[in-house]
Amino acid sequence: MIYNVCMAVRAMQEATFMILTALANGSQHGYGIITDVREVSGGRVRLRAGTLYMALDRLRADELIVVDREEVVDGRLRRYYRLTPAGAKRLADEAARLQAHAAAALRRLNLAGGMAT
Amino acid sequence: MTDREHLERAYRRLLAWYPRAFRRENGPEILAVLMADALDGQRRPGLAQSADLIRSGLWMRLRPSVPASARTVRAAVRLMYAGAAISTVNLILVLAVTADAKVYHTVLGHRLTAAQARELNLTTLGITVLIVAALIPVALWLWMAWKTGQGRNWARGLFLGLLVLSAQHPVFGAVATEHPVFGVLGTAGIREGLVPVVFGPIIPVLTWLVGIAAVLLLELRASGAFFKSPGDGGPALHQAQMVELARIRSSSARWTRQV
Asked: Is the complex ipTM more than 0.90?
């Protein structure tokens, strides 16, 4: 049980968080995830194909995402992924955790003399 | 050959770093993403892109494919990697001590008599046996971690067997005291299995504790679901996953034939 708690509390890697965020809007294919993550992060997070598919493989194994459907566009395979309920919950938990941390940081900075403004 | 064909071929070569099963399932899709991300007129993969593919390809080969749901198996596989790490420390010790004794013998000269050198087994053959005997546990631990991670049921049994065999380790018997330093090794051979040859009891005892913990984890009821009956390959998948996998395989095979 202690192990469970550790697993839940452990921070998610940024790439994983961003991939799940990209899928929170509906199903996406690999390249769609890359462009969406770039957009959401204001160009700061640029996923590479190797990293992306390593993360997707892990997320599928952990049943946080599943393959939604496949299409062939211009002779190229497009596989669409979507969040599972477990994946959505994991993302929501992680977002809440990050939000709590960020709120605490901002609150303290404001109290310390409005440095955040 | 056009620029794009040239680039695609280079990417295909890079994908060879991935395990075959993964490549068969995801290769066409990764290739599609790589090509979509390519700049106009690009003929060669960028350095960072290549490094990323090689890094993740190697990682996919090495890391255990145990899902988070099989926690006990995951922990056992991690312990096995810890066992490999301990055995590696032992290997380094063996190399250091051998080099040291060799220097003492040959460079500083004449301090060891031929009989002493023989007793310490400082011949080329002796040293080779020594190093091989230290390499075997490292290889065994890694192999066991790999196969257990793949959900091979026989790996569970074999791991237990190797651990039992290792109970004959000299550190637990009288042999250890017969010779001062390398004595153990004269008779060591391959017998120690998972538990490495060492000087002093710390490493064997540590290795043993790790081994026993891993066996206990693997024998838990929670671990059973991950392992399939002998003969079947791969970790146990849920029915839905199996269906999905079959569908994906056939469609990607079809697609590969098209191109």
From this structure: no
